[in-house]
Amino acid sequence: MMKEIQSEALTKQFGSLTALDQLSLEVNKGELFGLVGPDGAGKTTTMRLLCGIMDPTSGEAWVAGHSIIKESERIKEKIGYMSQRFGLYGDLTVLENILFYADLFNVPKKELPKRIERLLGFSNLTPFKDRLAQNLSGGMKQKLGLACALIHTPEVLFLDEPTFGVDPISRGEFWQILYGLLKEGVTIFVSTAYMDEAERCHRVGLLHRGKLIACDEPDQLKLTTKEAYFEVRSKDRKRTKQILDSMPIIKGTSLYGDSIHIRVEAREKLDEVLERLRTAGIFEAEAREIAASLEDIFISMTQSQEGAHVS
């Protein structure tokens, strides 16, 4: 299968800070790849390196067959890049913003009407083409940013946390647009801190402190754990979590809405956990076994990394 993106030991340092540490990964042509991690993990640095916006400290990468070091300008012709704060112009209308980016990318004038009509159509922005960008909702601004990034018909689309701060409905609509692009053969590289969005990707890379700690299909990553996961509910969630955190047999805890997810070495340990809670005065606690989510796996892996880091 053809590789659209490939990196080898890609590293970026800012003084004494290593923002990206020996990143090696491959993304297939036509794939939706998700780079997942919290703020400060190195996602934006990765994007900027792959887009040829900054040079690596060491290592190399190729995008659409071109070196990010030797052929960065060729790469920029073949990619669309939507940063966290995409450069929309608030005093221009939706249509004027698209025309501005078309001019920036030297899109042939004869192709413009058809492309604009199509982009406005699939982003549902046609009724708003004369509205000033500053008067759009957050979700509509993201769709406009995407339309601008696509005006020159890129082979590879880089999206840096494109739905951050956007309402759930608009997030869903945005992802439906991305699925439509996949059908046209566009390769999409998206970064996100939302685990539910990571589940939508063909494959994901889990990034922690600049290091790639896992890379696979979401369902395959969930199969990597040998621990048992449980959902615990009680009236006093805060105190319950404090008690759970103090128990050596529990390998990790995390809050999920009004419940607590815990992971233990084996499901047989649950009775011991509940007994410990009852001894501490938490009599109404209930627990049920659950399948590990991608977020559970990520938390488990990062906690393991932190443990290794401490030792």
| Biggest sheet: strand arrangement | 6-7-8-3-9-10
- Average pLDDT works out at 90
C-alpha Rg (nearest Å): 23 Å
**Spans with pLDDT under 50 lasting ≥5 residues?**
none
Structural class: alpha/beta
Shape: globular
Q: β content, as a range? A: 25-35%
Note the run of SSEs as H and E.
Answer: EEEHEEHEHHHEHEHEEHEHEEHEH
Please state the oligomeric state of the protein chains shown.
single chain
Number of helical segments with 4 or more residues: 11
Q: How many β-strands, per DSSP?
A: 14
Major sheet attributes: 6 strands, mixed
What fraction, in percent, of the residue positions are helical?
A: 25-40%
SSE blueprint:
Layout: E1 3-14, E2 17-28, E3 32-36, H1 43-50, E4 58-63, E5 66-67, H2 72-78, E6 79-82, H3 94-104, H4 112-122, H5 138-150, E7 156-160, H6 168-183, E8 187-192, H7 195-198, E9 203-208, E10 211-216, H8 218-222, E11 228-233, H9 237-245, E12 250-256, E13 259-264, H10 270-279, E14 286-290, H11 294-310
Parallel strand pairs: 3-8, 3-9, 6-7, 7-8
Antiparallel strand pairs: 1-2, 1-4, 4-5, 9-10, 11-13, 11-14, 12-13
Helix pairs in contact: 3-5
Summarize this structure as a short list of keywords or feature phrases:
single chain; 311 residues; alpha/beta; 6-stranded mixed sheet; 28% strand; globular
Question: How would you sum up this structure in a few lines?
Answer:
With 311 residues, the protein is of the alpha/beta class.
